[in-house]
């Protein structure tokens, strides 16, 4: 995939699923966040990770993606906090609380 293809894909994805409101799901933001991370766009990735958290504040995966985006920007302390939050939520949900 070329950079031009990626930019077009992001624009199309954004128009179809996010701005039009066809679907509001944290997984849409999570997938785009991962795509941004894979294409060395950590600020955009962080924005989408935060949006996933807004939609689903108890979803551990959103915290893990936020941590990855923060780490990619050299924000190690903040990344560690996001990881702790995600782990805490995951442990709570697996223990039935």
Structure overview:
The protein has one domain: Tetratricopeptide repeat domain (Serine Threonine Protein Phosphatase 5, Tetratricopeptide repeat, Alpha Horseshoe), CATH 1.25.40.10. The protein is built from 5 helices and no strands. It has 97 residues and is mainly α. The model has no long low-confidence stretch (mean pLDDT 85).
Q: Tally the helices: what do you get? A: 5
Rg of Cα set: 14 Å
The unreliable regions are none
Please tell me the total number of domains: 1
Describe the sheet with the most strands: none
- Determine the mean pLDDT: 85
Order of helices and strands: HHHHH
CATH class category: Mainly Alpha
Concise description?
With 97 residues, the chain is mostly helical.
Task: Kindly list the characteristics that best describe this protein.
97 residues; mainly alpha; Serine Threonine Protein Phosphatase 5, Tetratricopeptide repeat
Topology:
Blueprint: H1 3-19, H2 26-38, H3 42-55, H4 60-72, H5 76-94
Helix pairs in contact: 2-3, 2-4, 3-4, 4-5
């Amino acid at each position: 995939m070329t950079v031009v293809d990626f930019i077009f894909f992001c624009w199309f994805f954004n128009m179809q699923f996010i701005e039009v409101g066809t679907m509001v799901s944290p997984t849409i933001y999570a997938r785009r966040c991962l795509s941004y991370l894979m294409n060395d766009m950590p600020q955009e990735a962080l924005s989408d990770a935060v949006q996933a958290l807004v939609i689903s504040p108890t979803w551990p995966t959103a915290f893990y993606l936020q941590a990855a985006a923060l780490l990619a920007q050299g924000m190690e302390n903040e990344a560690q906090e996001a990881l702790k939050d995600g782990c805490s939520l995951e442990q709570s949900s697996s223990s039935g609380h």
